[in-house]
Amino acid sequence: MSTTTLTHDEAHHHDAPHGWRRWLFSTNHKDIGTLYLIFALTMLFLGGASAMLIRLELFQPGIQLLEPDLYNNLVTNHALIMIFGAVMPAAAGLANWMIPMMIGAPDMALPRMNNLSFWILPAAATMLLLSFIVPFFPGGGTQINTGWTLYPPLSTQVGMSMDFLIFAIHLLGISSVLASINIIVTLLNMRAPGMTLMKMPIFCWSWLVTAFLLILVVPVLAGGVTMLLFDRHFGTSFFDAAGGGDPVLFQHLFWFFGHPEVYILLLPSIGVLSHVIPTFSRKPLFGYHSMVGAMLAVATIGMVVWAHHQYTIGMSLGAVTYFMIGTIIISIPVGLMIFNFIATMWRGSMTFETPMLFAVAIVLMFTFGGLSGVMLAVVPADMQYQDSMFVVAHFHYVLLPGAVFGLFAGVFYWLPKWTGHMYDERLGKLFFWINVIGFNITFFPQHFLGLAGMPRRIVDYNVMFTEFNVVSSIGAMIFGLSHLLLLYIIIKTIRGGKKAGARSWEGAKGLEWELDSPPAFHTWTVAPQIK
Amino acid sequence: MTRMTNHRITRNHQPYTSPADRSQEPPPVRLRRLSRYLLAGLAMAAVSSLAQAELGINFPEPAAGVAQEIYDIHMLTMQITTVLLVIVFAFVFYSLYFHRKSRGYVADQNFHKSWFGQWSWVIVPIMVLGVDLTIAGKADAVLKKVWEVPQDKDIMDIKVTGHQWWWEFDYLDSGIKVESRYVPKDEAGDLYLREVDHRLVLPTHTKIRFLHTSADVLHAFWVPELAVKKDAIPGYVTETWVDLDREGVFRGQCAELCGTWHSRMPIVVEAVSPQRFAMWTEEQQAMKLAAAAEASADKEWSLDELFHKGKELYESKCAACHQVTGMGLPPAFPALNGSKIATGPLADHLHIVLNGKQGTAMQAWNSLNDLEIAAIVTYERNAWDNKTGDVVQPADVKQAR
Q: Which residues in chain B are contacts of A312 at CB distance < 8 A?
């Protein structure tokens, strides 16, 4: 911590307030970034616990642990908590911490709105958790057994917990849109003199693209669930065929949001990797311009291929052909990103600290997940894959390496900057290996289950699927519990450790590494000059 | 007389293969092929018995022409993507091994400025596009074959209706209806969740069109050997088609989350020769006539007769939600034991059974005949602690419709 003035004069209100006021009334991008990250870590454990319960239930055929509706409720909550509670806030936390420091700005452009967009989250999370808990109380209605996709007509049958969930989604959406506006305004207006858009660090670019995506698609989801709310309570029939409505319309609205959402989760991590890989390869990022172009292309094409999540709804031949080709085409920009990462490593001088280990694992496993995505894009084959465990395996191979491991890499990479202490490298590497091996044991066998005919979201299965489910569940326990080690490493680093220098990593480049570790409460009060 | 008819109806709803046929039912292909290997030597026995444990890691062997097409395109894309994966892994591992600081490798700071660095943003997309077009081109050809149903006059139509949580199959050409429900664990054994009470019997070497729809929420008809999957959506009719090319029993289940008992919606397709299928059709029609005659007979039914008939129907059609004990699973599925509906005015009870209840999983059961409804309602009003003594005659149901 930098020295803090001890005067409590009103005129010095921009000095750090102490105690709970510091956090509740915070307008400081670093403190808000910390809040986001702590919130995300909490949610990671909640979402992880529900995932472990799911895998415990699936450890053996038969219904051992969870009633079917409770199981489906956990499936729903696992997805929503992980996406809206863990990954998006963690990425927003990184953005809050790093963007002003990377572009030489004193803070975010709209600090009070920054405070609001964070503090909506705990309220939204409470609503989300209530939607899970309410059915356990008398008169609480039925559990949410629809999965996170909330497809009607099933979702119109659910009790009042669905209304809690709809309001939770509204709040989460408001929070995301506010945060996105803030990030866009900051990036467009607050860059240090001389930093043109094409000199902006890639992490900032990735968030610029992500923020635009969020603003474009989150309102569509909010509209969709509002229509659902009206169908449930106000006698409309947007999605009720009996009243002239259309159940498939909801799926289109949902996936118009849902598919770009995948890139919203993914791009910030791609941004992180674009810093981690050059640092530990000790050479500049290969293809800065094509990286920016690829991110813009992914976002643009990603907006118009949503219906590949619903190939089985009975679209016309022309429509599915269009969505198939569009989806396969996404492999071009994504392939270019992967290529750029490999070319950055190529002929570099690599060392393998924890962030780099995660980066390498991401390049390998995300490629794997991307390629099974190409298989899924092929409509005739997808008639077989759709809604099977193959899909579950695919999107976990995309989202865990692509999003979550990228965030882990970012946390390990910037933890010395934030805390001023180096984390314990030995423990970091141990965490990496347990985590990645556990992940692969969990999800690799699910490909086989899906191909052999096991549907997703079933609480009980035929004995023919036992073997791989046993393996997958054992992997899930290893994978899940490994995160306790992450928590320990983070706490240990915050409390102490080897002092980190301003440039914590030998190969690190960028404005954030010119600041002290940890940086002063207010940084870049005088903007640096970029040549 | 009544008892006998009753018995016959039950038996005739059984899967088509008679017990004698069953013993001759060809073993699954996997086994047949394995038995050939078995002859090769005893040493192979251990291996094949392991394989018999059905450790499926890929699609099962296709049973239809369209399924074969889908299988082939799946294998092709999997091979292409595997090759790409190997290439990526090879480059990464080469780099990880050679380009590391611990080997004293000095970073090439100008690599991105070489001609390759300058033009890779063009070269790489063109190469990826080449792969994409290969996949898309092959996929497009397959898609045209499997997606649109052939416009043949003699195509056989089967309407597949998803219900919470059972399947209804209507043979539109012959007017036969098959209701297919899961079989409890103690009866199904190792086939639990992949076994049904009444199979979907289909002829081989015939083009069959499935018309998918739903009576309540979304479902999806999925039998891996047939490969074609479509959602059942209320208010929509979607279609798929197959041309079965081998006989056998193929098992699948509902693939779209449809609520509490989503896992309990198996589908069993029994593919038989066209001759056998014709015989089966005749039997089913005779049975249907007999049931209709019984239901419309102007007969006063006794409480005992209706109660026993009703118990059987209740346990197959109603007990999934309201439970055999009548206690339901509140709050989603209310108890019938002591409920206001099942012990209150008869008219309300008939109304809810015939018309269902909006916004809940309770569907309209008006497709059952008068006798069946009368039996179920009589049972519900007299079973457990509901000793109302009410006897509901088919004529009462007719009036209530």
A: 220, 229-231, 256
